[in-house]
Amino acid sequence: MKARILVVDDEPAIRDTMRMILEYDGHEVLTAGSGPEALTIAERESPDIAFLDIKMPGIDGLEVLSRLRGTNETLPVVIVSAHGTASTALEAGRLGAFRFIEKPLSKDYVLDAVREGVELGVLKRENRQMRSALETKHELVGTSSSLKQILDQVRRAAPTNATVLILGESGVGKELIARAIHRASLRAKERFVQVNCAAIPEELIESELFGHERGAFTGATEKQTGKFEQADRGTIFLDEVGDMSPKTQAKVLRVLQEGEVERLGSARTIKVDVRVIAATNKDLEEEISLGRFREDLYFRLSVIPISVPALRERLEDIPALVQHFVSQFSRENNRRPARFAPGALDVLRQARWRGNIRELRNAVERLLIMSERDVIEAEDVRSVVRSDATRFQAAPPAAGAPSAAAAPSPTADDPAGQGSAKPATLREFKEWSERAFLVDKLREFGWNISKTAEVIDTPRSNLYKKLEQYGIKQETEG
Ligand SMILES: Nc1ncnc2c1ncn2[C@@H]1O[C@H](COP(=O)(O)OP(=O)(O)OP(=O)(O)O)[C@@H](O)[C@H]1O
Ligand SMILES: [Mg+2]
User: Fold this and answer.
1) Overall pTM > 0.70
2) Mutate which of 134, 170, 175, 314 to test ligand 1's pocket (most atoms within 8 Å of Cβ)?
3) Burial class for 459, CB neighbours closer than 10 Å (0-12, 13-18, 19+)
C-alpha cells in the first residue's frame, strides 16, 4: 500500500536517503528540516506515518512528538536517532512512538516500520471511529422538559452506588438510560453486564445470575461464573425485572442485602461489589398487589426510581430524535443525510407510537430505505406510519387522538380494513389480499363458514384460524 510519509531530520543527507528508500518503494514523501516545520506539515498534509529525528536544533524530536499528540492522536510515529540511549527510547515509547530505529539507517528496518505503521494507523482510526459511533449510538436525545429531567436524574444518580429502578413502556429508552448511568459513574471502566430476566427460562436464570459449580445439577458439566460475579466492581442491569419468578426474587434480594452470592452447588459465599440497575415495563405496584412481586425487593430496587414517559407524552422530542436517527443511519450506510420536511414531522407528531422511540426509529429507517429523495415529505410518512399503526392496532384510539394515525376498521368499501394505505412489504401485501379475498367470499356465501370453506377449498379449521388471525367478524345489517 502506498503511504504518505513525513520525514523529519535536520540533516539534508538523511532526508535524501530516506526519500530515496521510500520513493523507490512507491511511497509519497514529505520532508521537514525542523520541528516547527514538521508540525505545520503534519497538520496540513495529514501523513500516514512520521519518521522523527531526535536531536534537532530548536525543538527536539521528543518535544515535536508530544505536541503532535495534542493535535493528532492517531498518527503513528517512528523515532530515528543516532543518539539512541535507553532512556530516550523509553521516553519516546511513553509519548506514543511505536518504533525506535538507529542510524545509520537500514533500508529493511525503514520499510518494515512503514508497513507496521500503516497497519497501526488504520487500526487506530477504526478504533476511534468505532468509539465515537458507539458514543452517539448511546446518546440520549431530546429537547422536552421530561427528557431534561431524566438527564438530570441520571447525572445525580450516576456517581452514587444507589440502586436505580427505571420504569416505562416498551421502547422508551430504559436500556439507554441504564447505560448512561453506568458510563457517567465511577464504575465506567468496569463492566456493564446485562441480564434480560424475561428471556431466560426459569430453570436457567439462577445459574445465569449466580453461577454454578460443576455437577451442581444434571447437565452442569462445566462450572459457570454468574452474572453478578462477572459484574464485580461494575454494574449489573436487570432488565425486565418484573418477570422474575418469586424464587429468583428472593435470591436477588439476598444479594442486595448481603452483597454476596453463592454459586449453585456450592456452600461458599463470594463477596461481590455490584451496582444494580433494574428496569421493567410492568406496573410493579400492581404486581405487588397481585402477589407476584415482592414488596421488600421493590423497596430495595427503587432507591432511585426513574419514570420514563411514553413518546406520546413528549412529542416535542420527535424532531431531534428524527434528526439523530437520520444522521446515524446515513453514517452507517454511507449515504447523504435526507431531510424531513416540516409537514413530514407534523405527520410523525400525530402518529400513535405504541412502540415509542423504537418504533419511531424503525419508521425513520424504513422511510430512508424506501425513499430515494433528499427530502422526505408528509405523504411519504403517511404511507409508512399509517400502515404501522394498522399492523399494531389493538386498542381503540384514545379520546381526542388524531384520526390520521388511528387505524381504520373494515368497511364495505375497504374490505381489508387497511384504510387507503398501501401495504409496504410483500408480507403485508399477502396478508392484505388474503384478508380481502376471504371477506369477499364470506359475503358472497352469506357468512356461511362451511360453505365458504368448501368453495375456496380449505379446511374449515383453517378458515376459522384465518378469521381469528385477521379479526374478521360478520358484518351486521344496517
Ligand atoms: N432519548 C433517546 N435518544 C436516542 N435514542 C433513543 C432514545 N430513547 C430510546 N432510543 C432508542 O430507541 C430504541 C429503544 O430504546 P431502549 O432499548 O433503551 O428501550 P427500552 O425502554 O429498554 O425498551 P424495552 O422495554 O422494549 O426493552 C433504541 O434503539 C434506543 O437507542
Ligand atoms: Mg430494554
Assistant:
1) no
2) 175
3) exposed
